[in-house]
Write a structure and sequence with these properties.
The chain has seven helices and 18 strands. It is α+β, with helices and mostly antiparallel strands. Helix 1 packs across helix 6 and helix 2 packs across helix 6.
Length: 352
Amino acid sequence: MHDLAPMARFGHLVATGLRDVTNDPAALDSAGFWAVAADFEGRLTCARFDDIRIEPVPDPVPGQWQGPAAGDWSTSLDRAAYTAGVRRIREHIAAGEVYQANLCRVLSAPLPDPAAADVDALTALLARGNPAPYAGTIRLPAYGVEIATASPELYLRRIGDTVESGPIKGTGRTAEELLEKDHAENVMIVDLVRNDLGRVCATGSVSVPALCAVEPHPGLVHLVSTVRGELARDAGWRELLAATFPPGSVTGAPKSSALKIIDALETAPRGPYCGGIGWVDADRGTGELAVGIRTFWIDRTPADGPRLRFGTGAGITWGSDPELEWAETELKASRLLAVASGAYAASGRTAG
């Protein structure tokens, strides 16, 4: 597996020919094309590639991806622990410490053939079974980064000095299932993202072109808003990431309080899940980073062997029902786990 060449794929954009790797965000304002992976806990990997080309995502090759069996997944928080965590967050809300906090769990399963596991083969399956606007691969085994994402959520898009974020808050199977709580949750996070961007954008330039738009995705719908601003003079990627990371939609509000609660309640690091995944073209002054949701990654560090990991979670507010929040994490995970387990390939149709 480690013989696989480093590469990155973002939609139809493919990058090969690794030149260098750094953890310095200032490099993203230097030169060249970079693949970017930022773990929720703050580890940043920026990989510069020499060869960039446009090509379609390949069709899945039967048997090329060998995923875990559907019943092999375990979770960092089981149903009892997760619902207890929701109740604890509601206590924090009642005490006035936080308005909202995201509670997440990490699912993991052993890989049947870790030496042959290629995240780009999983991306090909995801592209067919769960199409997503920010789908991609970052494959850097020597640097501990092997990610396949089907993210639907824009963290940061930059075109020159214009920056934009597209926070998602509110999930249901249909638009009719979306609750008042979902809209309230979205508006709270929009305020947070406006504040974050306001720290690094020119005064008065931050706006909200779209609020709580209903956006369909495979198997579910989301409420999505758009927040836009103009970077202040001398502000670059280092300042932009410092002001906005981790993404507000997967932390909570106020962010500092939510992060403390997350640290106390969650029992596994999120890693690439809820971080930032994408690309930056420093030569053109453009870039697009997704929030690392609907994301798989290979962890080769466990003593009992490499594991495939996947995160799922929900935003908790005062109006949250613990059982319904657990059900939301299940809804978000079910389709993706079916694809990764090979259920899609076996059935010859989109995995449900």
